[in-house]
Structure formats: C-alpha cells, structure tokens
Input
Amino acid sequence: MTTHPTTPAETVRHRGHSTVPRSAAMLIMGVCTVYFLLPLWWLFVGATKNREQFTGTSPLWFADFHLADNIRELIAYRDGVFLRWTLNSVVYTGGAALLGTLLAAMCGYALAKYRFPGRELIFNVVLSGVLVPATALALPLFLIFSQVQATNTFWAVFLPSLVNPFGVYLARVYATAGVPDGLLEAARIDGSGEIRTFFTISARLMSPALVTIFLFHFVAVWNNFLLPLIMLSDERLFPVTLGLYSWNTQIAQVPELRGMVIVGSLISIAPLAVAFLLLQRFWRTGISTGAVK
Amino acid sequence: MTQVATHPPQAEPAVPVERAGPARRGRHRYARAVAVFVAPFAILFLLFYVVPIGYAVVQSLYVVQRTGTYGPAQEVFGGLAQYRLVFSDGPFWASVGRMLAFGAVQVPIMLGIALALALLLDSGLVTGRRFFRLAFFVPYAVPGVVAAIMWGFLYSPNLSPLKPITSAVDLLSADTVLWSIANVVTWVYVGYNMLIIYSALMSIPTEMYEAARLDGAGRLRIAWSIKIPLVMPAIVLTTVFSIIGTLQLLSEPQVFRSFSSAVSSTYTPNMTVFSMSAIPNFNLAAAFSVVLALTTFVLSFAFLKATQRKGIQ
Output
C-alpha cells in the first residue's frame, strides 16, 4: 500500500489503489460534518421561524422565512438592549484584544531581542501565568475591585481582559524566529531608535503573529464568562453572552424570550465565524508555531 | 496607555544586550527601550494576575468575627481556618471528583477524535480537506454560553430534532446530564485541537516517510510509529489546555441549570466559587479560589513533567 501524500498533487498518484480505505475515510468525514454542522443548521432554521412554527414544524427545515422580522423584533425589544450588548461585546473583546496584543507583542519582543537582568524570571513568571486558570482570578479580582468600589463598571471587565500571558509567549517565539538581529543592527546604524524600529520594522515582520495573537486573545475574552458574571449587575454593561444567558434563565417566566435567545444566539455567532473563515490562514501558522516550537 | 510614562521598579534595572555587537555605546538607550516594551504588560500582569493571587491568599487566612450576635463584623487572622472549611466541604469535593471523572472520560475522547481526524486529513485518503477542516473548526467560533444554550434546546424533548434519541433517553437527568455537557464541550473543542495536531503533522518533512514506505510500512503503521510520536508535543499541549479547561468548567453547566434541575449551584468547583461571591463569604471564597488555582496548576505541571517533553517550552 502506498502512503502519505502531503500535497493535493501527490494525491493523484495514489488514486485507484485504495477505494475501501478511501470510502471509509470519506464516510467518517461525512458523519463528523453532520455532527459539527447540524446544531448550527438547526439554529439557523429555528431563527427564521415565528413562534407557532418553531414548535409546530419540522425543526430541520424552513417554514415561512421570518428571519428579518425576528431580527427586527429582537432589536426593538426593550429599547434595543440587545444592540447595546452587542456593542459592549465589540468594545470589551475588540478593544481588549487590540490593546492586549500590542502589549503582549512589545513584551514578547523585548524578551526575545534584548538581554537584561530578570529576563528569564519575567518569562518564567509569565509562562506560569498561562497555567493559571483565568476563572481562578475572577473572584480575587472582584474582591480587589470592590475594595476600590469599581465593580459593576466597564473597567472592571475591560482592564483584567488586557492581560494575555500566552500572547507574550507566542510573540517571543515569533520575534526570535522572524526578526533577524542583523536587521535590527542595520536599523541602529541608520540611526533609528529602538522603539521606532519596533513599530516600523519588527512589528511589520511580526504581523502574521500579531493577527494570531489577536485572534487567540479575542476568543479568550469573548469566552470569559465568569468575570462579567461576577463583576456586573447593571444590565446595560453586559456583553452579549451574559445578556443571552440572563434571558435564557428567564424563559420559564417569559416564554417570548425563547425566540429572542435563538435569534440572538445566531447573531452572536455570525461575526466571529466570518472572522475565522477570513483569517484562517493566520490561525494555522499561529497554531503550528505555538504547538511545534 | 499612560503607564508607559511612569517608571516601574521591576523594569528599571534593565540593561542592554550583552553581546550587542557594533552598537555597544547605546546601552542606556536599550535600557529605556526595554522598560518601554516590558513595563505596560508587566504592570498590568502585576495588577491583574499577581496581586489578585496574593490578595486571595491573604484574604483566605482571615475569618470574620462578631462581638455578640449583632455586633459589628471584624476580620481577624484565622490561620488555616478557612482551608479547614474547604477541606471539609463535601459538595466542593464532590464537584472536584465530578470534574476529574469528566476529564478522565471527556479529554481522551475529545483528543482521540481530534487526533484521528487530523491523521485522516493528513493521510491523503480524503478529498476536500479544506472544507472538512473548516467544518470541524466552526464550532470553536461559538461562545461556550451560546453552545450550551443551543445544545440545551437540542436535548429538550419537546423541541429537539433528535426526537428518536430524546424520547428514549432523558439527556437532562441526574445520571446523564454530565455527559450531555461533555458532548457540548467536545463539540466546541474537537476542531480546535484537531487543527493544532494537524498543523504539527503538516510540519513533518515528507522525507520522514520515504524510508518507512520503502520498507513496506502501511498507512496505519506509519501513523502509529512515525506520525503520532512526532506530534506528541502538540498532543501534550492540547492535553494540558484541556485539563485546565475542565477544572474551569463554568459557563456550560451554569447555562444547563435552566434546562435541568440536576445541575446544582455547586455542580463544578467554579460554580461553588461563584455562589460564594453571591452569599457573600469572601474569605471562604478566596480559600476556594486558591485551592482551585493550585490544584489546576499542580495537575497541569505534573502532567507536563510526567510526559518529560517540552510541550510548551
């Protein structure tokens, strides 16, 4: 039996030998695709139905297409609180990921490209930070923020979200591999300051890495549920996940919320899914560097 | 950020590259640059990682005392009193045991599927690899809360498209709900772990297989004897992250409380911590946080050491 082609071109050579393993492999792929995509299909179909159709018609196929109406209803509900949550999510996650990526990149870059006392210490402390679960920090953070009476504020969620130790680790790996020392020397000889060199040359060389760090960070903040859950009581500060969660807990009392939760869930997934699809090239390079090096 | 302007003590002693080559005279410039690069992250890391941990440790050593029944509450040093409470707290240890059982079953299944799918994608047997890779990865874009809400509906007998299953088995009963939650976690993370392992497989040079192929080794043999050992670091990495994730489990079971009465407010360790913050008994909650962080850290670290491979470094 011939084995292991790694490029599509090579695959062609091996055709014909192995129809049985090939069909078995494709069957497994097909079953897994159904498993991974069916729930999302169900959500999409469900979001296009009105309330009677949701329970009355086949859950996996369309009835009348009410998606636009449902979205309008969702947005209008309680003075547009859902839009507010979406906006909050964008600011919490987008803002924290952008700023956090810059901070992690600068720190990782310095750890890779300069020798200074305490360098190893800082790196090891940051690396063990990767192993500390973010949720174990949520309660202590809550205690500290309540000392300064800052719980239930935007900053209570935003500031802790800026810190991303794994980003520092990735940035160090990338800077070591991707930014040649010779180039930095050349920049120095040309009279460029270190900080200017970072922003004009190094950051550009590291840009695929920066996108990866940004994505990882984005997902981490997006998924951090305990911190906003503990910190926030004012509904207007909620991120969209916490908002949907709170609606979901009220479905028993307010049945009309069920439709809102379904449509809201679909909307909350869409932007991230699209971003993933567009940026998947960066995911792959980033993941392989993180895992292999 | 404004922190850049201030000079933090821990970044001050920064000294230039020892073998700086031609640019030796620029020593102090480098020190400043290093401070500017490191300080913003270091300050935030100190404030929102190191200080909270320290603060939790300190808080966990205090107890609240009242003089008389209605006297003012006063915090006094209580040594390890809170930890005695933690260690004698039945529901908490039940939840830890639940998570260990969950992890012992769910992590191998999830990583097994991820590894199998990665090997299949890499085997050359599959056409349309790009599509499958994406299809498996999409669930990772779904936040845990939303995934749990979605699956919660799918498990509910009156709404589910899985009627043949949900009418035969109650997926939300006390016996089954833990594994129903395990399915949600698996669904979200298989694709992500598969991508990590697959990327590691892609980075193996093809020449590695040539010799084995000439010796007559088949696909399975090559996968078992060459590919899996070579991607071991990636598998270790995903295992560590999965262990951390399991002990942190919160959003999925918290959401499932709306779907199943079998999920109590202390179902997972993190839910216990959360319910403490609502009571509130901060000193005890701090002790819970410390124990939980330590347990996670020790478990992940022990796993890294035990495998004797540099999965992270």
